[in-house]
């Protein structure tokens, strides 16, 4: 049981109202994510607390508070099925913070609420770390700090402007320290104790299987998948295939990854030649287990916590839930798997028995004509190019024998249909083939010298294995000439070219968007992407290689910054320098008198003071009256006389200790 | 704000030392510093090297909050959470300087103290001068080694404020002010900065007046017109403001509801006879009881508007009356037998 707060410890009404307002600001972004009843409960608790203070209502008894706390636990559990984890934990934290208001009466209790508010602020960044959140961060921190300032001012609350100014100044002074800590505080790769299952963004982007319709929904999304910056010139467009998950299991309808492949820890055999293309990718978090790279990433220079699987896709141990900056070196000239293992050949030519009979017959007819593997590939591509196949984002639905229906009946589809049908044909003819998904192409940003790859660039293509050439990329979709691409699909695909024909207003809008994206890219790269890898690289430019050096520089920097802040703060406390000679001499006289125990009282003018001293110490009559006379004449009559000043100084020296 | 703690046994003190080694160290350091505080008439400028600063328990709580936040930021590799944690780390450090700067370079001076009667509480006024161009907030004053509610004040730029320190004065004589602290936790309450000071402040404590009842001895001495007591021929001369020590019966009760402060009836002396209050004539053995009785008579005589003189061994105050005369007499009684 805490002792009852002293009278000065009670919270003034105005301070409480400010606290409640700031509390609402800090909770507000969470309110949209919480169950409706919780939002209602939180808001009504805040309103009730404000009214309780102004109407002098009593705070609820202890058993009621206990019941409310239990109800909060039950409520959160019934919605989320647990009380831990990211979403449930935050829901509980918000409720407990609101319930704390029911027992908040003194300044002491406020401290707990204020610390919880600071903490709650951090939880917002689990949901969004966009550029605007930094503005929200500063606004909220200044508001919370001002409340803290208010709480530590007993008696009448400070004027709102004063407390905001004081809070703002404190935050302003903390900024250089924040930057120093941010850059130099040694970062370690997380997670430390593992993340709750619901942490991070929801899943987006490519999926780990390919069913018709998956990619077409992506193609309509202009969200950014990743940003690319090349060291040197970007490779030609025909090489811009960003490799993602590779599928080799076909069940007649959808393509999947097999568990066998997921377990396979062997590296692909690759002969790399030429100079690698070096570039960096800022990958948006899509909760996927793979990273995208141009064919073929150097297996010796993989990013942290990743490996290359047998199909040359780079996979990570944990789903990507944070934006990540990845440096790549890719060899565009390579031979992947010069020798195909017999079991791989068997798997990569396998088709479900009895499926797609017409396509199988067609492919086998090519083989019986005596064509080689490469010729069969050409025959299929020629078919797509020359016969009336159309590219559309709204293809007709396909039945059980999807490849048959697509090749012989509907002939309308997009990359999934083409790559799937192509793979079926090749496998039927005995050519090892697999489906590769990923992104194709990119879009230059008008400002940053970097490129954007959007979800609309999602693509599916194939790889066929040819003797002596290894796995060769084949893109059957690219066989369709532009005249057979439907306009809606054209718009979705060819946004880049279309922009050249925009009007001036639309062009300005486009440039503004480009600028905004450029700013976002910088933000993502330099602020959000500033993790252990980037810190190491950035600091090594200044010769800071090891963590010990980082800590040393950090300590030195913080010390210097604090000296500066301390100097600024102390300077405000130092009285302005007095240059007026009369005042200086008067103070010197006062100092001498203080030694004898005479101190001028605040309600005493100089004359009264001198009279008082002289009445007790008649011996000081002469010097004190000279001092008084000179002081009054110089200070208040505006006289300027060096001789008088001289006499003044001499008289001060004659004041002896008594 | 400190919480008054109940008296503790030796054992619990020892346990306290084990549980709070920092507090124990703090107490030792304080004792060392307090022995070195010198009494000065003032003014005292609080120099930079005389300001001590330690984190409060809220300061430690703040640090723990930041550590938890930092661990979370590491776990989630969340840059914005890092940024917030680092900003708050900076805030804590910056707050230390601001708390320190809120206290440093203020000037302490002794203010006024009013005389009191023994057993009352002496109020020492301490004036805090701020010569700087910026205000100081929430400066609190408190006695060393005592935990009580500490009065606080703001000091405007280039101005002064006063805080009043209360100290019970059980005995008559000069009541000397002890070492006191001027402290602040402004702006954020994360740090407690303080300094020790002892100004040459003392409060005159008069002996406690005895209970009314015993009449002053008639003809209590010589000099002037020796003594008849009250002749009963006093004329009502008007009303004046109540002053401490006035007898209850002299209060003009009728006017009480109408006026802000009580009024006291005054009588003019028609018989030019002064009352001599003589130490030797008090029929009490105990020194303090005698002094108390004399105080009572002085107050009564003052209330009745009579002239009175005081005769103590070694002191002789001729008859008179009025505020200054009463003060002289009471002071003589307060300091009776004291150096």
UniProtKB/TrEMBL annotation, chain A:
Keywords of this entry: Membrane, Transmembrane, Transmembrane helix
Spans through the membrane: 12-28, 63-80, 86-102, 109-127, 133-149, 170-188, 550-570
Pfam families from the UniProt entry: DUF4129 (PF13559), TgpA_N (PF11992), Transglut_core (PF01841)
Domain Transglutaminase-like: 407-478
Gene3D superfamilies tied to this protein: 3.10.620.30
Organism superkingdom: Bacteria
Listed SMART domains: TGc
This protein's name: Uncharacterized protein DUF4129
Automatic annotation (TrEMBL), chain B:
This protein's UniProt keywords: Membrane, Transmembrane, Transmembrane helix
Transmembrane feature ranges: 58-76, 82-108
InterPro entries: DUF58
Classification via Pfam families: DUF58 (PF01882)
All copies of domain DUF58, residue ranges: 239-286
Name the record gives this protein: Uncharacterized protein (DUF58 family)
Originating organism: Panacagrimonas perspica
């Amino acid at each position: 049981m805490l002792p009852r707060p002293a009278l000065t410890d009670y919270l003034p009404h105005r301070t409480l109202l400010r606290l409640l307002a700031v509390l609402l600001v800090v909770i507000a972004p969470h309110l949209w994510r919480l169950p409706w009843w919780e939002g209602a409960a939180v808001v009504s608790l805040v309103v009730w607390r404000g009214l309780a203070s102004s109407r002098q209502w009593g705070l609820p008894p202890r058993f009621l508070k206990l019941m409310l706390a239990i109800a909060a636990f039950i409520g959160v559990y019934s919605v989320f099925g647990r009380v831990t984890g990211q979403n449930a934990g935050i829901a509980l934290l918000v409720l407990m913070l609101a319930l704390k208001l029911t027992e908040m009466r003194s300044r002491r209790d406020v401290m707990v609420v204020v610390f919880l508010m600071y903490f709650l602020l951090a939880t917002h960044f689990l949901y969004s770390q966009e550029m605007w959140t930094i503005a929200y961060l500063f606004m909220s921190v200044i508001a919370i700090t001002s409340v803290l300032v208010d709480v530590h001012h007993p008696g009448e609350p400070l004027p709102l402007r004063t407390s905001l100014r004081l809070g703002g100044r404190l935050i302003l002074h903390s900024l250089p320290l924040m930057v120093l800590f941010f850059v130099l505080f040694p970062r370690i790769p997380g997670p430390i104790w593992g993340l709750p299952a619901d942490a991070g963004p929801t899943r987006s982007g490519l999926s780990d299987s390919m069913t018709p319709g998956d990619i077409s929904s992506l193609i309509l999304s202009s969200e950014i998948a990743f940003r690319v910056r090349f060291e040197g010139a970007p490779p030609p467009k025909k090489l811009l295939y960003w490799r993602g998950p590779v599928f080799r299991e076909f069940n007649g309808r959808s393509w999947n990854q097999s568990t066998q492949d997921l377990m396979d820890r062997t590296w692909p055999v690759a002969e790399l030649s030429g100079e690698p293309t070096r570039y960096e990718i800022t990958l948006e978090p899509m909760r996927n287990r793979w990273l995208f790279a141009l064919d073929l990433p150097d297996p010796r220079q993989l990013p942290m916590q990743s490996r290359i699987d047998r199909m040359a896709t780079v996979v990570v141990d944990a789903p990507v839930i944070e934006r990540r900056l990845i440096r790549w070196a890719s060899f565009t000239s390579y031979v992947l798997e010069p020798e195909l293992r017999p079991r791989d050949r068997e798997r990569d030519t396998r088709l479900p028995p009895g499926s797609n009979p017409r396509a199988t017959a067609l492919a086998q007819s090519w083989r019986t004509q005596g064509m080689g593997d490469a010729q069969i590939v050409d025959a299929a591509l020629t078919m797509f190019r020359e016969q009336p196949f159309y590219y559309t984002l709204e293809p007709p639905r396909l039945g059980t024998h999807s490849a048959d229906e697509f090749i012989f009946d509907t002939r309308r589809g997009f990359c999934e249909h083409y790559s799937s049908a192509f793979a079926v044909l090749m496998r039927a003819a005995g050519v090892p083939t697999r489906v590769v998904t990923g992104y194709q192409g990119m879009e230059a940003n008008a400002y940053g010298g970097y490129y954007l790859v959007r979800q609309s660039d999602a693509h599916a293509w194939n790889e066929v294995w040819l003797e002596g050439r290894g796995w060769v990329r084949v893109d059957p979709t690219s066989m369709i000439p532009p005249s057979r691409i439907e306009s809606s699909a054209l718009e979705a695909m060819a946004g880049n070219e279309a922009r050249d024909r925009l009007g001036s207003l639309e062009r300005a809008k486009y440039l503004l968007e480009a600028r905004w994206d450029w700013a976002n890219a910088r933000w993502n790269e330099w602020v959000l992407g500033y993790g252990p890898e980037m810190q190491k690289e950035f600091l090594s430019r200044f010769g800071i290689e090891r963590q010990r050096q980082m800590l040393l520089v950090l300590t030195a920097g913080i010390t210097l910054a604090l000296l500066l802040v301390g100097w600024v703060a102390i300077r405000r406390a130092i009285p302005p320098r007095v240059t007026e000679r009369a005042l200086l001499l008067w103070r010197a006289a006062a100092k001498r008198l203080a030694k004898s125990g005479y101190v001028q009282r605040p309600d005493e003018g100089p004359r009264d003071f001198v009279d008082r001293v002289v009445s007790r110490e008649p011996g000081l009559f002469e010097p004190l009256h000279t001092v008084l006379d000179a002081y009054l004449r110089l200070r208040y009559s505006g006289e300027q006389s060096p001789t008088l000043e001289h006499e003044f100084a001499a008289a001060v020296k004659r004041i002896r200790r008594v | 704000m400190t919480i008054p703690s109940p008296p503790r046994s030796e054992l619990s003190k020892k346990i306290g030392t084990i549980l709070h080694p920092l507090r124990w160290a703090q107490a030792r350091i304080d004792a060392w510093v307090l022995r070195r505080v010198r009494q000065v008439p003032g003014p005292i400028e609080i120099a930079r090297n005389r300001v001590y600063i330690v984190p409060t328990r809220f300061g430690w709580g703040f640090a723990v909050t930041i550590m938890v936040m930092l661990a979370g930021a590491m776990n989630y590799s969340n840059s914005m959470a890092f940024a917030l944690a680092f900003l708050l780390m900076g805030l804590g450090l910056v707050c230390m300087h601001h708390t320190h700067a809120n206290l440093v370079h203020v000037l302490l001076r002794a203010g006024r103290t009013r005389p009191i009667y023994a057993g009352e509480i002496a109020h020492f006024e301490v004036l805090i001068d701020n010569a700087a161009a910026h205000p100081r907030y929430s400066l609190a004053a408190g006695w060393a080694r005592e935990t009580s509610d500490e009065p606080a004040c703001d000091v405007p730029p280039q101005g002064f404020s006063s805080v009043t320190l209360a100290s019970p004065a059980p005995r008559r004589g000069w009541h000397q002010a002890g070492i006191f602290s001027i402290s602040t936790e402004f702006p954020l309450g994360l740090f407690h900065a303080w300094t020790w000071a002892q100004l040459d402040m003392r409060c005159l404590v008069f002996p406690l007046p005895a209970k009314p009842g015993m009449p002053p001895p008639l003809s209590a001495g010589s000099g002037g017109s020796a003594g008849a007591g009250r002749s009963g021929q006093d004329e009502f001369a008007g009303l004046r403001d109540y002053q401490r020590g006035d007898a209850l019966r002299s209060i003009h009760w009728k006017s009480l509801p109408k006026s802000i402060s009580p009024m006291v009836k005054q009588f003019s002396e028609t018989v030019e006879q002064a009352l001599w209050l003589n130490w030797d004539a008090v029929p009490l053995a105990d020194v303090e009881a005698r002094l108390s009785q004399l105080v009572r008579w002085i107050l009564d005589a003052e209330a009745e508007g009579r002239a009175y003189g005081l005769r103590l061994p070694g002191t002789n105050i001729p008859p008179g009356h009025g505020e200054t005369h009463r003060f002289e007499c009471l002071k003589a009684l307060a300091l009776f037998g004291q150096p």
